[in-house]
Every structure is written in structure tokens, then in C-alpha cells.
Structure prediction request, 168 residues.
Amino acid sequence: MTETDHSAYLSQGDLPAVGILEELPPKLRARLAACGRLETLEPGTHITRQGEDHHGLSVIIKGNLKVTCHSKGDLLDLAELGPGHTVGEMSLLDPQKSSADVTVMDQPAFLWTIEGDAFQQLVESDPELGCAVFRMLARELSRRLRQNSDHMLHRADELRTHFLDMDY
Prediction:
């Protein structure tokens, strides 16, 4: 990703309609673009580190990120994220220490990022856009909660089946 790639987005005054940004009309995406920054991050760059403060939302425009977690001395691979995925959305709503490491994988990644302070200013100065962003975030977090609930229910069914198949 080159600086001219950044310039193309900035000259259009818009963010691409990827992931949660697909829900926003172009007019609101243009206003949102002005509140954050576009950045290219090289492979190996940490977006956030487990246990450290992280107060911003990033939307992956291009590239892939790896999500890992340290637990009981092990490094667990949790997910790989690509274009349209978000990082840090919970930190905008409930600032806590980061629950995982998020690192740029093997190619440079192009992200749009808004920091917590800029997000608060956006919500206060542009209630229409702030409400739209809250709806986007609520839908994304609801989708993830449903996905995790489905996963846990599936796992519970597997355990129950295994228990019922035991030899006594």
C-alpha cells in the first residue's frame, strides 16, 4: 500500500464500503472518514497487545491481522481478520485492557482508525453520525455474541453426546 493509495481514499473524502462501513450511506462514511486516519502498517506491527490499554477502533481496508492470546503459558491462535473486520470496537464502548494481541500478518495492512477521544468528540458534535456508528457497533457485537452462543451450544451438544455414549 502506498501513499497514493491513501490519497485516493482521502481525495474521494470517503471510506470504502467494507464490513461495518457497508451500513453507512456514502455521505456519512465521508463524515466518518474525516474523524479518523488512514494508515499503512507493516508486517509484524502490533495493533494492540494483551493486557495493555487500547482506546480506538480500526477497520481493516486491506491486509490480514492475526489475533492471539497468552493463556497459562501458551500462545493461542484465536482468529485471522481480513478486509471489513474491526479491531478495538469494545474499547470505544467499555475501555478496558486489551484481551488479545493483534498483529499485522505477512503483507502490509491498510486500516482506518479512530481514537477514543476523537470518537467521543464525534458523538457530541455529530449526533446523527454518532448514532449511526453506535448502531453499527451494536450490530457487530450482537453478531459476534450470537456466533459465540452458537459455538458454545454446539460444544455443549458435543459434550452431552460424548457423556451419553460413555461405557458404564
User: Anything to note?
Assistant: The chain has a mean pLDDT of 87.
